[in-house]
Design goal:
heterodimer; A: about 100 residues; alpha/beta; Glutaredoxin; 4 helices; 5 strands; about 25% strand; globular; B: about 625 residues; mainly beta; Immunoglobulin-like; Neuraminidase; seven-stranded antiparallel β-sheet; six-stranded mixed β-sheet; 3 helices
Chain lengths: ~100, ~625
């Protein structure tokens, strides 16, 4: 399931569960493409939580998490960042990262 | 077809040259002219307007001498005697542009014929010589070949600065004469930004392409001919997220990749970065040199300010020349050298190019010197900086290094070239130093690299300087417009076969272009894309290149479709900024203009080309033929 969140929503997330948080920008072609990839993954893994955050509107959070560009995908587990993927990736790379934490 | 989509299909240059050669040979064989009225073909291989062929027959086998007369006096004449034959196809090299050149063919019996070969004007934007200090006594029959670092063309200048050789194809990067007398340089066929071309080409000075060596990871920067004729070439693996960090050995006959060296196996990627480093281009390998004495390869990595040496067989790291600041202590202790000798004259090299191993094991390079420090706080401004050629003596037992020669520091910012360039070792005390990437703004060394400067602005100058020094005396200096990647001094004629008749070959393989397995939802419309996108498709025998204009952030995908299958390629419309731009040949003026190369390898059949732009899938009216 894909849910759009803000920094405020992020603060109340329970990061102990495995999840993917993607920083995107509305002005980014690869981010638009990634949204279709993530939709496909959400269909394949409907129970895995995917959160998307607007990079431009949540600058303090992206600074805090060390996100330098978009799209950036952070994979969380047990309250910590387990891995990250920077730039547009295809389904197999993202699924591999999900399966490593799920 | 609508003007909204442009399309051209052109045979590979090799195919066009093969056809041209067959045509002039057929005409020659039909006429069989004698020396009194030889057949003359100007620019026979289509890409060198300053050359010609003179063809004639003689009743018996004789060795003709061809002389290209100097523009001013006989001492400037270029002469070459060819092998004895009855059918003569003589390359005429080094013609002056826009000039009625006098060319004399003399036979051993003293008979001769002087012909006039008229050449045309060269392209208006060709880079001209601005200053030259040279003499015939010093240069003899050599001229200076410069390879382009942008949209300029490979050009060679004689002792007066006159252009005597030029290719109208933008072949690029290194240029080296190989043992058979041919030239190996980079192909002009675009593959991947910022400057990767399909591979290397082996050509003669008429411009005839004997072989194109295609490489799956493409070619960039440099190559080196091994003793057995095989070629070391710099490349990468595009399936990885890093570039310019591999070297391969290419079979000279088949184009097959025989061996690979992967620097990721021996170097950490996140340490000691130069001012231009990013995670993607972490090493930026710009030169390779094989040393038979130590059976090792030396590689220059601009983005770690390091020259590294690897064991040829194992690929293991032997040593690193560079400022050790920022490297892990265990690596510094094991691989780095300690400066000795007169330390007041010692400088490390930074963002260097063109490593050369001298016969005695000394290591030379062009020390571009950009940033000239390992940490940001100590970076040197370009206008306060210098570039130079430098020679280091290394003792690999004691792990000591001594600077034994340099040229350029004393010339300061006037000689400063933050990218490209090379040095050549001719003999002890006799060197070439080529700062080919000089950019000036308002009279000072510019802050940005040449390809990002606009030479049309009155306060901007792009310059290339080539100096030769012998025993501390400058004997040659050439200054031209534009930026040139490397310089190589060569005679036009050599003792081998200056022309071999027969079809050129396309060897090796391109990569299978990565497809995208997710296709965005888009409504198919039966119309062409809006003309703003300026779509242009260039089809070649083994690939095609898609060009289009897109606002930043556009979702775009190229789709190849037929009734059986579809293949989809994501088009990245994000503006990108490159910290290295060793050749601006493929740069577009408008950053919204993108291009993508699609290899035909792995595709079979006829495919309609369609284009997804945001929520619509457009037709282009173009079909691509991919032979099985």
């Amino acid at each position: 399931m894909i849910t759009e969140i803000s920094q405020k929503d992020y603060e109340s997330l329970d990061l102990s569960a495995p999840m993917l948080i993607e920083f995107y920008s509305k002005t980014c072609g690869p981010c638009k493409m990634l949204s279709f990839v993530l939709k496909d993954i959400a269909k394949q893994k409907p129970d895995f939580p995917i959160y998307i955050i607007d990079f431009d509107e949540n600058r303090e959070l992206k600074e805090r998490l060390g996100v330098k560009g978009f799209p950036t995908m952070l994979f969380f587990k047990d309250g910590k960042e387990a891995s990250r993927l920077e730039g547009l990736k295809q389904k197999p790379a993202i699924i591999k990262a999900i399966e490593a934490i799920a | 077809m609508s003007t909204k989509v442009r399309y051209i299909s052109e045979d590979h240059l090799i195919t066009r040259q093969n056809r041209a050669e067959q045509e002039f040979l057929a005409a020659f064989n039909a006429e069989k002219p004698g020396l009194a009225a030889p057949k003359v073909v100007v620019n026979p291989y289509l890409i060198n307007p300053l050359c010609a062929l003179v063809m004639f027959t003689t009743p018996t086998a004789v060795a003709p001498t061809l002389t290209v007369h100097g523009k001013r006096y006989a001492r400037e004449n270029l002469s070459h005697t060819f092998k004895a034959a009855t059918e003569h196809i003589l390359p005429v090299l080094g013609l002056y542009e826009d000039f009625a050149n006098q060319v004399t063919v003399t036979l051993p019996d003293g008979s001769s014929n002087t012909l006039t070969i008229q050449t045309g004007k060269l392209p208006e934007d060709v880079c001209r010589c601005l200053n030259i200090q040279a003499s015939l006594d010093y240069l003899g029959d050599h001229i200076m070949f410069l390879t382009p670092a942008g949209k300029n063309l490979p050009t060679a200048y004689d002792y007066r600065g006159d252009i005597r050789w030029l290719l109208t194809e933008n072949t690029m990067f290194d240029i080296k004469r190989v043992k058979n007398g041919n030239i190996v340089t980079g192909s002009s066929r675009f593959c991947h930004m910022p400057y990767n071309s399909t591979g290397m080409v082996e050509i003669n000075l008429l411009g005839k392409v004997y072989k194109e060596y295609r490489m799956p990871g493409n070619y960039h920067h440099d190559h080196f001919e091994m003793e057995d004729g095989n070629l070391l070439a710099l490349t990468q693996d595009f399936s990885r997220d890093t570039v310019e960090d591999m070297c391969v050995l290419i079979d000279r006959d088949t184009g097959e990749v025989l061996k690979t060296w992967d620097y990721r196996k021996v170097l950490p990627m996140d340490v000691a970065g130069s001012g231009s480093q990013d995670a993607h281009d972490w090493f930026h390998n710009n030169a390779v040199w094989y040393d038979k004495r130590t059976h090792s390869i030396t590689l220059s990595g601009r983005h770690q300010d390091a020259m590294i040496n690897l064991d040829y067989e194992t690929g293991d790291l032997n040593w690193i020349i560079g400022d050790p600041e920022g490297w892990p202590k265990e690596m510094v202790d094991k691989y780095f050298f300690k400066p000795v000798g007169d330390l007041s004259k010692f400088d490390w090299q930074y963002e260097q190019h063109a490593c050369v191993v001298c016969p005695d094991g000394d290591v030379m390079c062009f020390d571009n010197g950009q940033y000239r420090a390992k940490v940001k706080e100590k970076y040197i401004e370009n206008r306060d900086n210098f570039s130079r050629g430098v020679r280091y003596r290394i003792d690999t037992d004691k792990m000591e290094i001594e600077q034994v020669w340099q040229y350029g520091k004393e010339r300061g910012q006037e000689f400063f070239s933050p990218y490209i360039c090379n040095v050549e070792y001719y003999d002890e005390g006799h060197y070439m130093i080529h700062p080919g990437g000089i950019g000036r703004e308002d009279g000072y060394a510019a802050k940005h690299l040449g390809p990002f400067l606009d030479p049309k602005k009155p306060n901007v100058e792009l310059r290339s300087i080539t100096v030769e020094e012998k025993d501390g005396v400058v004997l040659y200096q050439l200054e031209t417009e534009g930026n040139f990647y490397r310089a190589e001094k060569l005679p036009l004629y050599h003792d081998g076969d200056n022309l071999v008749i027969g079809d050129g070959q396309l060897l090796g393989n391109l990569e299978v272009t990565e497809e995208f397995d997710t296709v965005p939802e888009a409504e198919e419309v039966f119309e062409l894309p809006p003309s703003f996108h300026n779509i242009f498709i260039e089809e070649d025998e083994d690939r095609f290149v898609f060009h289009g204009r897109f606002e930043k952030g556009t979702l775009a995908m190229l789709c190849l479709e037929n009734e059986k299958e579809s293949h989809n390629y994501f088009l990245n419309t994000s503006a990108s900024w490159h910290l290295a731009m060793c050749s601006g040949a493929f740069l577009e003026d408008d950053e919204r203009d993108i291009k993508m190369h699609i290899s035909k390898l792995g595709l079979s059949g006829v495919f309609k080309v369609k284009l997804i732009i945001n929520e619509k899938k457009y037709q282009t009216g173009v079909s691509i033929l991919c032979p099985a």
